User: What shape does this take?
Amino acid sequence: MALLRSSSKSGIGMTSSRTRERMLTRLREQGIKDEVVLSAMGEIPRHIFVDEALSIRAYEDVSLPIGFGQTISQPYTVARMTEVLRNGGALGKVLEIGTGCGYQTAVLSNIADEVFSLERIRPLVMKARSHLRTLKCTNVKLDHADGSIGLAEYAPFQGIIVTAAASHIPEELLAQLAVGGRMVIPVGTSTQVLYLIERSAKEYKQTKLETVKFVPLLGGTSA
Ligand code: SAH
Assistant: This one.
């Protein structure tokens, strides 16, 4: 991703790079240690992913509405899931399910070689595409599709990140994870737990991480 220089992207006042620095300080206090993730989040202007009226709140540790009943995930959740996915190593090809406005996608774009992201609500795909174009994230491919069945034609993926809560872990996603790959996925309805799945040559190892709050992973697509 290109370095951002124009004032609309780098921001002023409550959307400035200094505000982003404060977000990084808070993330460190919350336990995020991966400097690669922190540096990506320090570089990406989160305020351009939300409506202008909300941009003043873009760096608070909250999720915010992005329209169509969906939300942009809170910074801690984005940082934590990316840190777990990366596990200190290089990320090759990654699949994200639930693009939303594209903020997590931009963070991944900064870290991974190649990012595929699927979103079931068409206007959000358009929104995310425009944001990612502004940031010149050229290693990203977005698609309007039901992500619960994954993206078999580009599998296997070294990382799969699901940013909506699933009722169960979809078999298709497990099959599309590379051997040695990692998947992070929130599972549950009223109480949701973040799971890490690690695929080795002989098994899928499941680890329960922490409780989280996501919009539900729904089937099918919406125009
Ligand atoms: N990654 C986003 C989170 C967006 S919220 C961020 O950075 O903030 C989760 C998104 O998942 C919503 O936009 C919702 O429409 C989408 N979603 C839900 N079920 C889906 C499915 N089956 N396939 C693709 N997207 C889905």
Notes: The pocket of S-adenosyl-L-homocysteine is lined by residues 70-73, 78, 97-100, 103-104, 118-121, 124, 146-148, 163-164, 215, 217-219 (CB under 6 Å).
